[in-house]
Amino acid sequence: MHEGHEMTSARTLCDAASSKESGEGLMLKKFKDLTEKEILALAISSEEEDGRIYGEFADALRESYPATATMFEEMREEEVVHRDRLLAMFRQRFGDHIPLIRRENVKGFLARRPNWLVRPLGVNVARRQAEVMELEAQRFYQRAIARTTDASTRELLNKLADEERKHTQTAGDLEEKHLTQSAKAQEDASHKKLFLLQVVQPGLAGLMDGSVSTLAPLFAAAFATHKTWDAFLVGLAASVGAGISMGFAESLSDDGSLTGRGSPWIRGAATGLMTTAGGIGHTLPFLISSFHLATTIAIIVVMVELGVISYIRHRYMDTPFLQAAFQVIVGGLLVFFTGYLIGSS
Questions:
Q1: Is the domain of 179 the same as that of 230?
Q2: What is the pLDDT of residues 250-278, one digit of tens each?
């Protein structure tokens, strides 16, 4: 009984701890309740965290966006200097023990999404995140000054606010310094290349597969049965099945770490959706009850699809339009006649 009572008590304590942890959002400290010591400790941890985030941005963008990466690296170095000065100020006033307090322990701060952990990292996402971080730091010091009555602490916080304003100006100067017109042009080219590798190429492959590979089963079923509903069901099944197959095949082909093709989930989704869309386009006309009308519209839709594919290949793959059109149209016609011959036999 005694052992059972101890186990029950231990379980109760664990449940209480778990409830306390899950409800930690209710235990946030109000900014107005912070002491001067806690405010300075919060400033130290914030500067250190911001410096590490800028370092992560620099590391993530170094290969594709070197100019922006250099800018973030210099911003990281600025944050390190600020942190060291804050540490020296803290030791002078309060000693060596620094209270463990972070932004997430205080009400009023924005909840930050860990964008710095995402690979590949979007350059525009990183820049917007940096802007938000700088504005938040400015507001923090301004509020801290307003909440402090001690003269020496106000003087200290005013110095910190001045440093943060200088840092914001420095960030702007760094962007002008590193992101020259030439650097911006190079990074825009890298951004376009990433979009090409992650979205356009997989999507185009899916659109071509969906538009071409589903022609044979769709028109074979149409000419074999002369029933539009049966043809629609076959086309729908072929389109969705091909989309699922192509999506998984693309996402499992490589993880993008060596090829630079980006997230496999993004590529798989683009391929799968465009494959399904390519097949659905010429399948929908068979919802019309008239066989001849449905077939005529479906053929027109196929011609439009092949033209769109030719344009995309010309626009993003630098393929001459006539060459792209010839390759796509010949392939589509071969598949179409294959379906027609099988369905009419």
A1: no
A2: 777 655 544 455 677 777 888 888 889 88
